[in-house]
Amino acid sequence: MVSNFNVAVKRILALLALSCFLGGLRAAEEKIVNFYNWADYIGPTTIADFEKEFGIKVNYDIYDTAEIVDAKLMAGRTGYDVVVHAASYSARLTEAGIYQPLDKSKLDNWKHLDPDILRVVARFDPGNRYAAPYTWGTTGVSYNIDMLRERMPDVPLETADFFFKPEIISRFADCGVTMLDSPIDALPMALTYLGYPDNSIEPNHLGEAERLIKSIRPYIKYFSSAKMLIDLPNKEVCVAMSWSGDYSVARTRAREAGIDINLGYSMLEKGISGWVDNLFIPSDAPHPDNAHILINYLLRPEVIASVSNFVGYANCNRSATALVDPKVANDPAIYPADDVKRRLNLSLVYSPKVERPRSRTWMRVKSGL
Amino acid sequence: MNRDDLWRRFVIVTPYLWLLMFFLIPFGLVLKISFADPIVAMPPFTSLFDFNKAPGESFYATLDNYRFLLKDDLYRISYLKSLKIAFFSTCLCLLVGYPIAYAIARASPVWRNMFLFLIILPFWISFLLRVYAWMGILSTNGVINNLLLSIGLIEQPLQLLYTDFSVYLGIVYSYLPFMVLPLYATLAKLDFDLNDAAADLGAKPLTVFRDVTLPLSIPGIISGSLLVFIPALGEFVIPALLGGLDSLMIGRTLYDEFFGNRDWPLASAVAIILLLMLVVPMMVFQHYQLRETDQRE
User: Measured between beta carbons, which residues in chain A are less than 8 angstroms from residue B248?
Assistant: First the structure.
């Protein structure tokens, strides 16, 4: 009995060792790249075209909240080779050694990138060493123009008063007002409205921002970063704090569902909050060479232009703008004037203990404590 | 050692191994993280033992997270809110589920299988999809409001979605089968001759139910209630999708702590307290139940 058992164990160990060895051998030459991206964030044929051209199989995986990616990367050994993630998180993650620097010699399409966007990203990634910008946009408010005009013909859409003045926003409570469930988007917006630095974590600044949001909270239906994508086209909601691209996603969904709807988007002029999504290579990526090939491919103007055409977000590729569908490229909500890029404020994500006052403020705002 | 002995040992050891692998070890890991400090690293918390340091300093643990939990009102409020919602949902499930289980248990065998099949049927559709369907039914432009508006019963659409009402509805709807099935299992085993005997002795139907059926079905009530109460207490999806601003349940708070604030140690401490809130009452309950069985014997 005992000896039989020992033999069995030895056989299993031998098999394991063999498979590890074979696995190691295969990894060196395997034509695979593991790509982790936001849901609905790539062109319909982008991946298939890449596979055809380079003979590298793409394992495509998607997520629907930035926080999930962060948690996965922090836990380590994700197995991903290329990850799309917002610039705001990158300073903290590079500090923790999560990403590896990009080898620019393998990225000859880097030259197409918009220098203005690179400058914005460099605030979080000095020298642009880790992040290859993919898409960008602003944070503002999407709204249903007709439902708003019905309730207030002269609604001051372009000013931040529209969202933060209780006497104005209260008039739309009955048709549905929502806010992003994201302290790093909502609080900077409130802070700039009050005239404070957008990333401030000063207790008295945050306290005032808290009072401001609480003053409009009675008119807010819910806090969510995704639900309004369904509720805006369904007329369940008429004002939704959102990212610029959400507005075009909502519009597309309404069109698909055959709903006649007139959606607009405002950046609430007063220090513009925005975001830039980037392509990163995790430091433990199993296929870094293929990752560079994929990133270089995604930096190609015609490839990224077709992504923008499909997802309705602006890309960070200067040479691609001319190739983007005019309906997208001429929409000031998606491709704002050049000065917007220069004035773009990006939120900064701090380490948990430093972040606590901000997340605490946000929880109090949400729960109304 | 003969074959039977080996077999017996295997049978006894298996559930313990299972508990060890899938409960105790993960629990130990979460417990360990709850005593750490959050840092920016991979993984994002300090380790309990650092062997690179001098022997005296190699151990590091902190109670900061628990201190913070007790200090901050937010957690107390979310725990209480979760307890309240889980408790009332369980009561509602019992009120709705008991008659259903009773009817199934008293039905003829053919119908009985049919009914059981119908109870299980919703599980064939993804849970998430069913919750989304409720959003469509309850929304301002949804099925119920449109129906009520069209027959002229109401003039303004009712706010059904994003309220406590919709959270209760979602939980009762989703967990009802977990109440019905154990209740049915208990009720089906009952000897209905006892009811006849009670009736023969002059008891009215309500008295028969109160004095005979109900006491005998208590094991089913307890297991059904636990199966509803425990997952409802930590429920995240239903309050997140159907709940309004005030539906601050502990599952949601824990999610925010872990994903929103990336504070794994604090999130672990929240989870440990939640587990204690579940395990302690269950152990007390088990203790009394054991004592009762002992006394009977």
Answer: 366-367
The whole-model pTM stands at 0.79
Q: CA nearest B263 in A: which residue?
A: A352
Chain A residues lying within 8 Å of B44, measured CB to CB = 74, 96, 352
Contact A71 B140 (CB under 8 A): no
A191 close to A205: Cβ distance less than 8 angstroms: yes
Can you tell me the ipTM of this complex?
0.72
A367 contact B CB<8A: yes
Three-state DSSP state, B59: strand
Interchain contact, A352 vs B245, CB within 8 Å: no
Query: Domains (ranges, CATH) in chain B?
Result: 64-296 (1.10.3720.10)
Comparing A31 with A10, the larger pLDDT belongs to A31
How many C-beta neighbours within 10 Å does residue B291 have? 10
Question: One-letter amino acid identity for A88?
Answer: S
| Alpha-carbon gap, residue B6 to A6, rounded angstroms | 17
